[in-house]
Amino acid sequence: xxxxxxxxxxxxxxxxxxxxxxxxxxxxxxxxxxxxxxxxxxxxxxxxxxxxxxxxxxxxxxxxxxxxxxxxxxxxxxxxxxxxxxxxxxxxxxxxxxxxxxxxxxxxxxxxxxxxxxxxxxxxxxxxxxxxxxxxxxxxxxxxxxxxxxxxxxxxxxxxxxxxxxxxxxxxxxxxxxxxxxxxxxxxxxxxxxxxxxxxxxxxxxxxxxxxxxxxxxxxxxxxxxxxxxxxxxxxxxxxxxxxxxxxxxxxxxxxxxxxxxxxxxxxxxxxxxxxxxxxxxxxxxxxxxxxxxxxxxxxxxxxxxxxxxxx
Length: 312
Hints:
- This protein folds into 2 domains: 2-99, no CATH class; 115-279, no CATH class.
- It is 42% helix and 16% strand.
- It has helices at 16-21, 29-33, 51-63, 68-82, 91-99, 129-137, 172-181, 199-209, 235-246, 248-255, 261-273, 283-303; strands at residues 2-6, 24-27, 115-126, 145-154, 160-167, 187-191, 214-216, 277-278.
- The strands form 2 sheets. Strands 3, 4, 5, 6, 7 and 8 form a 6-stranded mixed β-sheet that branches. The chain has a two-stranded antiparallel sheet with strand order 1-2.
- It is elongated, with a radius of gyration of 23 Å.
C-alpha cells in the first residue's frame, strides 16, 4: 500500500506536471506486486486491476479531494516518477469497481479494552440535478440532495469504530442497529444527543452489551418519569430527576456528557479533511466513498495523536 503521500506546497500557478515533479512518498513493493488482479480459473473476462489497486486510487482521491479523472492522471504521474510500468485504472473503471468493492469501513482489532462509544450524524451534500440545471439553464433551484453520515467514535482510542451512509430520510435511531453490528468488543459507555432518546435505544443497547452499560442521552425538557420511577427507576428516570434537581449544565458535568462534543469535533474534522460533499453520483459508490474516508481518518489517527498535559 502507499504508506505516505505528500505533495509540494502550491505556489503560484502550476500544472500537474510541476506539482507531481516535487511529489514525495513511499510505495511498498507489496503494493506494486499485487497491483494486477490474479488470473481467474473460471469462465469469463479477466480483471486487469486488483482490489488493492482500486483501493489505493480511491484513497488518493479522498486524501487529495480529487475527482476520479484527476486521480487517474495523478496516479499515472506517480507511476512515472517511480519508474515502474503499471497500468493505471481509468476513471470509469474506478467508478465501476468502486460500486461493488468489498471494503470494511473500520478495521477489526484484538483489543480487549471496552469501547466508550459516541455516536453522531451529519449531512453530506450531493451535487445533483437541481444545481446542474440552475447553473446551466438558470432554472429555479430544486430541493438539495443530501446523504446522512453516521459515525461512532471510541473515546479511548480516538478511532472511528462504526460508520454508515444512509439516505437523508433515515432517522438516527433507525441507523443505530447497523452501526452497533460493526463494533468489535464490549461497550461500557454510550453517549449520544437527544435524537436517540427513547426506550428502543436503551433496550437495544442493553440487549447488545448488557444492562450494565452506561447510557447517557439527554432527555427533552418536557420529559416525564416512567410509571415505575418511584420503585424501579430507569437510567433515563435518574437523568430526568438529576436535571430537575441540579440543572442541565451540572448534569452534563457529572455524567461526562460533555465528552459528546468530541463526536461533533469528528464531524468537523471529516468536513475539513475529507470534505462536506460526496463526489460520487451513485448511492453504492457514495457508500464506498464514505468507507474510504473513514479508513483515511483512522489511518491519520494511527500515525499519532496530540498529547496534552495540565500545567496549572
